[in-house]
């Protein structure tokens, strides 16, 4: 074999190795992008701009059933009062799950209780002076949750304008990250 034939074979071999490396990089990159896309389907990252929750950043997992004490994120109901306070397309709300299906919600004047535990104090009016209606009392039905916040001005299940949060409204359960 001549030196020229040996050199041609080495160049071909190097070119083949480069093609295999490029193919491996393409496959690894495709798998990484697929994993990121799958993660995005099941997760959200939220920056909280309100004072109703103590943390300002949350990682939200979609499709997870909430438990008592979890942070829950949901689409608020559409109503004229919500439009006036939060605009035509309000962002998702984030609250804490205080009541589970089967728990009993009661009112004692402005005090709201879930299974006998004080969870909130109602106000008569919003910060803009609009009248607020007390939320429902009684047994929380399956697939619904009483949600609230310790913030005195929290807009949550203590008021009929928000009410119980049911499965169709739930975006996900959040974990505070900051």
Describe the structure.
This protein has 178 residues and is of the alpha+beta class. It has 2 helices and 11 strands. It has helices spanning 3-42, 80-86, and strands at residues 43-47, 57-61, 71-74, 93-99, 104-108, 111-114, 117-121, 138-139, 144-148, 165-166, 170-176. The protein has a 7-stranded antiparallel beta sheet. The protein has a 4-stranded antiparallel beta sheet with strand order 7-6-5-8, with no helix packed on it. A hairpin with a 2-residue loop joins strand 5 and strand 6. The mean pLDDT is 89.
How would the blueprint of this fold be written?
Layout lengths: L2 H40 E5 L9 E5 L9 E4 L5 H7 L6 E7 L4 E5 L2 E4 L2 E5 L16 E2 L4 E5 L16 E2 L3 E7 L2
Antiparallel strand pairs: 1-2, 2-11, 3-4, 3-11, 4-9, 5-6, 5-8, 6-7, 9-10
Shape estimate: elongated
- Spell the H/E element sequence: HEEEHEEEEEEEE
Strand portion: 25-35%
Please bin the fraction of helical residues.
25-40%
Main sheet strand line-up: 1-2-11-3-4-9-10
Cα end-to-end separation = 68 Å
Task: Return Rg in Å.
Answer: 27 Å
Mean pLDDT score = 89
Number of strands: 11
Summed up:
The protein is α+β, with helices and mostly antiparallel strands. Helices cover 26% and strands 29% of the residues. The model has no long low-confidence stretch (mean pLDDT 89).
